[in-house]
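Why run this: before we spend reagent on co-expression, it is cheaper to look at a predicted model of the complex and decide which construct boundaries make sense. The entries below are exactly what would go into the expression plan.
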Amino acid sequence: MNFTVNELCKSKTATRKGINNTPTPKVKENLEKLIKNVLQPLRDKFGEPIIVDSGYRCPKLNTAVGGAKTSQHLYGQAADIRTVSDTVTDNKRLFDTAKKMIDDKEIIVGQLINEYNYNWVHISIPDERHKNQIIAIK
Ligand SMILES: [Zn+2]
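The model came back. Tokens follow.
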């Protein structure tokens, strides 16, 4: 296992602002699903480390970072990820790997989002509102 629930709750903003970003049991359950069903299979296929910049965000933290009010991050269902080099080329490779896995039915996601020309990749588990949506935010 490369990913931990703990790592998906870490936040520099939360630390700086003294926000307690401890997950509820339900959130923890979602984070475990996110790791098991999406992040770990993607990591194994990609074959390189994946950095998580943001996972779970409690309401206070979500507001502090300007997250959407209905964001899946609020439920521990989403992660913002990138490559170690953090270049457009490598982040696009990560996105394309996830996209191919969705196309090949190796993973089922809620959303896969190319955020601001591969600045980072948002990926989530499915819920009532999201299933295998592949989009770009510019
Ligand atoms: Zn996100």
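The two ends are 33 Å apart (CA to CA). Strands lie at 51-54, 78-82, 111-115, 120-124, 133-137. Bring this page to Monday's planning discussion.
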